[in-house]
Amino acid sequence: MAVNAREKGEYGSGVMLNRVLKLDSKDNVLIALAGLHRGEQISFDSQFYTLESDVPAKHKFAAQDFATGASIIMYGVLVGKAVAPIRRGELLTTRNIRHQAAAFQEKTEEYRWTPPNVSRWKQREFLGYRRSDGQVGTRNYWIVVPLVFCENRNIGVLKQAFEEELGFAAPQVYRRQVAELARLYADGRSEEIKTRVLTEDAAGPQRSQVFENVDGVRFLLHEGGCGGTREDSNNLCGLIAGYIHHPNVAGATVLSLGCQHAQIGILREELRKRNPKFDKPLVIVE
Length: 286
Fold this sequence. Notes:
Blueprint: E1 2-3, E2 7-8, E3 15-16, E4 20-22, E5 29-32, E6 41-44, E7 47-50, E8 60-62, E9 71-74, E10 77-82, E11 97-99, E12 129-130, E13 136-137, E14 141-146, H1 152-165, H2 173-186, H3 190-195, E15 216-219, H4 230-245, E16 249-255, H5 264-274, E17 282-285
Parallel strand pairs: 14-15, 14-16, 16-17
Antiparallel strand pairs: 1-4, 2-3, 4-5, 5-8, 6-7, 9-10, 10-11, 12-13
């Protein structure tokens, strides 16, 4: 991935970095990282491009002239064909290109990656959470997840109760403001509602966290687990196991009805695939 070097900003001598982006060396289009204007000259990779049209941020413009039928390459692969001549520096739109994709094929070459030199950071440390399998997390979450979508309503109930009582819930600013207005109405002071100035102070003090080393409880929902094929169940349990195995997760509570395709046994098997010595706390409610 390459980006352009420093350029003079359009408002004088200020310096703006990375105004355009090229995703792959084979690409023949460039991506604008900021709004660019017609007539503006853009330098990239030792070349200059004069824009033939305005290019909004995140849109693409031609890095070469295209004849009708020419291939548009991005990410190093075919993504479209020109339906009209396109000038170098012109905005690419649905009016001058149409979608086109190369035929599917297996990889034709091996990708060789040279790892960066990280020796300067080898002795550095950070406040993290070391897991028994060698992973290190930057957060310490507990997750609650169902094995079947029928438990989603119960997850919602648990989410409200646990987040509020354990001090993880966001301040209920609007809820308390509405409660304040409702009290004025109940007290027969409706006229005051029209001129009442509501502030965030109405949210009241936030409850302190009960567990100082837990960064939060995350409640996951999905729409699977019951019908479908055995492969669907395996994939769902594999996804859930991936969440539980993540280094930022300390442990999990799993809700199961017992009658669904996605069984606890499948989840345990998927966990063992990721860590044969899985030892995180796992609470199963079935």
